[in-house]
Automatic annotation (TrEMBL):
CDD domains: HTH_XRE. The record marks E145 as: Important for autoinhibition of adenylyltransferase activity. GO terms for molecular function: ATP binding; DNA binding. ATP binds at D278, G279, N280, G281, R282, T283, S284, R285, Y312, Y313. Keywords: ATP-binding, Nucleotide-binding. Residues 195-334 form the Fido domain. The active site is at H274. This is Helix-turn-helix domain-containing protein. It comes from the Bacteria. It comes from Flavobacterium franklandianum. Gene3D superfamilies: Fido-like domain, lambda repressor-like DNA-binding domains. Pfam families: Fic, HTH_3.
Length: 349
């Protein structure tokens, strides 16, 4: 592990002092981590993996191996204990899967079947198809938030650079910004960039660019309320800690959950923290779709018509106020299933 950390830091061109300053860790500790004389905490491992762009699983496995060896040493019962631990870990993974409802598991199985079929016909993917579906996604995601641009007007703004008479400057910027945010998440997908604080702030910065420059790419510093909801987001002084926990949760669960569940959870958790003054919904949906694209799925395009919007909001409200995410997970899974079906239909499969 010590070699991993030192090599990654040097490849990034960072000094131990700079790493310590960015992460808020004492410089002496960074040096000790690299020499192997001190073991970082789990939270520190997560932060180091993100900053130094080390594969989280690789670093975590190395950290756990050293931690286990340090604890058990050469004890005669070590191997027997390790076998028992393995059994318990495997059982806990099964338990996580068993917490999903039969309805959700059924839809996830259908989604996996559709994705397997799509994987066989990836050669039929085309820029034109992707571009058209991304255009629809921009239209629907903005419509959810009250943008009155039609699909055709959205197309004219993005592809023709036209100004639509009777539409506000904000509505034009929302269309342009969302389109560029999609380009950004596809770039992150191609690079296989892990989800972290920097990338979420970057997505949000694109969403509010030119609309609210002071708050674009920054966590809120005031209390907010969600229009039409009884849920009260956390106080502003808690946002940074909530977001830190958000990324820790992601790193801990990204390989344990079905990608659809992971994407939906990240959406719900982010919009529940409501870390921004504005643009929380669009940013949360983009984060969700980044996870889906990284795992080989297609964009889950939540419709902006009244019935779909109300079903979406009600499912979120239930998750936030009743601590019951079933409706929301089902809603996202069903949306992805329909998106996959439509994609296969378009390519003639």
């Amino acid at each position: 592990m010590k070699t991993l950390l030192k090599n990654a830091r040097e490849q990034k061109g960072l000094k131990t002092r700079e790493v310590a300053q960015i992460l808020g860790i004492d410089q002496a500790l960074i040096s000790k981590f690299e020499k192997g004389s001190r073991k970082p905490t789990k939270d520190q491992v997560i932060k180091l993996a993100s900053l130094l762009e080390i594969d989280f699983e690789t670093l975590m496995v190395a950290w756990l191996k050293e931690k286990i060896l340090y604890e058990i040493g050469q004890d005669d019962f070590a191997l027997k204990a390790m076998n028992l631990v393995r059994e318990e870990v495997e059982n806990s993974c099964v338990a996580v899967k068993n917490t999903l409802s039969k309805n959700l598991l059924s839809i996830l199985n259908e989604i996996d079947t559709l994705k397997a079929k799509l994987d066989q016909f990836r050669q039929f993917d085309s820029y034109r198809i992707d571009h058209a579906l991304e255009l629809e996604y921009t239209f629907e995601s903005n419509r959810i938030e009250g943008n009155t641009m039609t699909l055709r007007e959205t197309d004219l703004v993005i592809n023709e650079g036209l100004t639509i008479s009777g539409k506000s400057m904000r509505e034009h910027l929302e269309v342009i910004n969302h389109h560029e945010a999609i380009v950004n998440i596809k770039h992150l997908m191609d690079k296989n960039t892990t989800l972290n604080d920097r990338e979420v702030l970057s997505i949000h910065n694109l969403i509010l660019r030119g609309i609210n420059p002071e708050d674009a790419g920054r966590y809120r510093r005031v209390q907010v309320m969600i229009k039409g909801s009884s849920f009260m987001p956390p106080q502003p002084f808690l946002v940074s800690k909530e977001m830190e926990d958000y990324f820790i949760w992601y790193e801990t669960n990204k390989n344990a959950l079905h990608p659809i569940v992971l994407a939906a959870e990240l959406h719900e958790r982010l919009v529940t923290i409501h870390p921004f003054i504005d643009g929380n919904g669009r940013t949360s949906r983009l984060v969700m779709n980044l996870i889906l694209l990284q795992n080989g799925y297609v964009i889950a395009n939540i419709k902006g018509d009244y019935d779909s919007r109300m079903q979406y909001y009600n499912a979120l409200e239930t998750a936030q106020t009743k601590n019951n995410k079933e409706d929301f997970l089902l809603f996202i899974a069903q949306t992805e299933k329909e998106s996959l079906e439509r994609y296969l239909e378009i390519i003639g499969q």
